[in-house]
Specification:
Layout: E1 9-13, H1 18-29, E2 33-38, H2 53-64, E3 70-74, H3 80-94, E4 99-102, H4 117-145, E5 148-153, H5 166-186, E6 191-198, H6 209-215, H7 224-233, H8 244-255, E7 266-269
Parallel strand pairs: 1-2, 1-4, 2-3, 4-5, 5-6, 6-7
Helix pairs in contact: 1-2, 1-8, 3-4, 4-5
The structure holds nicotinamide-adenine-dinucleotide.
Residues 13-14, 16-20, 37-39, 50-51, 76-78, 103-106, 126, 130, 153, 155, 198, 200-201, 203-206 line the site of nicotinamide-adenine-dinucleotide.
Length: 279
């Protein structure tokens, strides 16, 4: 049975589209008021289009269509003051933040020998500093209220490496270390902190021309069908990618009121690839 979130407030970063939007809608459907942010801006260091303001507006519209309230803000998670301001606004308008999902992230692909400072700074800024800023911003209010459910989004590359992914993998390994340490800091205050480690999820992060071409350099204009076997080889089960809702299910589980004694864990949702890494 999905948990009931009536009367709660959930904050989700990077929710203009993809997994973040799926999480926001699910919490709204279960009764929570929603706070979402997204940077809504392309970055030179990222080889595919990021979300737009229209995407963010659409998430807000979809959440409101469930009957719940929604604050949607254009904000960069790498900016500490922007995240503090977002949480202050959420607490002043909605009274509280009970649940935070640190979901915003980018994939940057470059071999270590040619990765630029900008690429490194972007992927560490969005994926690791952004998670720190989100967790740090919500934890003060959660401590005062003695309640919180924080879910961070790592990756199957948070427990392994891959070619051209040293920055991304470093950021996602970092998310796991941050999550475990934050869970200990916040354990006395009724706050849980857990990570989800997705495999290939069917969002614009993987369905884009740059990644398709990197995966099939032998083809001029590779299609989803052309890259599916390559994606599938990263999983153990014979499936190239999973839908965002599969991650949402686990986020909902970790964010449930009843999951009060699960903290400091990492739950992989990666079509069995977890069996290939230690612990
Ligand atoms: P996505 O690109 O559709 O969504 C990511 C969103 O985050 C975008 O809307 C983007 O604009 C936003 N964003 C990026 N940097 C931001 C920043 N600094 N501040 C605010 N917003 C920012 O991709 P997704 O698959 O929904 O990704 C969600 C999370 O899941 C990410 O952390 C990603 O690393 C992780 N993940 C994805 C996959 C996958 O295969 N798609 C696999 C493992 C982990």
């Amino acid at each position: 049975m999905p948990a009931d979130h009536d009367g709660q407030v959930a904050l989700i970063t990077g929710a203009a589209r993809g997994q973040g939007r799926s999480h926001a809608l699910a919490f709204a459907e279960l009764g929570a008021d929603i706070v979402v942010c997204d940077r809504c801006e392309d970055r030179p260091a990222v080889g595919y289009p990021l979300a737009t303001e229209a995407d963010l507006d659409e998430t807000v519209r979809l959440v409101r269509s469930t009957g719940r309230r929604c604050i949607g803000v254009r904000a960069d998670t790498a900016d500490r003051s922007a995240m503090n301001a977002l949480v202050e606004r959420a607490e002043s308008e909605f009274g509280r933040v009970d649940i935070a999902v640190a979901n915003a992230g980018v994939a940057v692909a470059a071999p270590i020998q040619s990765m630029t400072d900008d690429q490194w700074a972007e992927v560490i800024g969005s994926n690791l500093t952004g998670v720190f800023n989100t967790v740090a911003a919500v934890s003060g209010g959660m401590m005062q209220r003695g309640y919180g459910r924080i879910v961070t989004i790592s990756s199957m590359l948070g427990r392994a490496g891959n070619t051209s992914m040293s920055g991304y993998a470093a950021s996602k390994w970092g998310v796991i270390g941050l999550t475990k340490s934050a869970s200990l800091d916040l354990a006395p205050f009724g706050i849980t902190v857990n990570a989800v480690a997705p495999g290939n999820i069917s969002t614009p992060m993987i369905h884009n021309d740059a990644l398709y071409s990197a995966m099939r350099p032998d083809l001029d204009h590779p299609t989803a069908e052309d890259v599916a076997p390559v994606f599938q080889s990263l999983h153990a089960q014979p499936v190239p990618w999973l839908e965002a809702e599969e991650i949402t299910r686990v986020v909902l589980f970790l964010a449930a009121r009843g999951s009060s004694h699960i903290s400091g864990t990492v739950i992989p949702v990666d079509a069995g690839n977890a069996a290939r890494v230690t612990a």
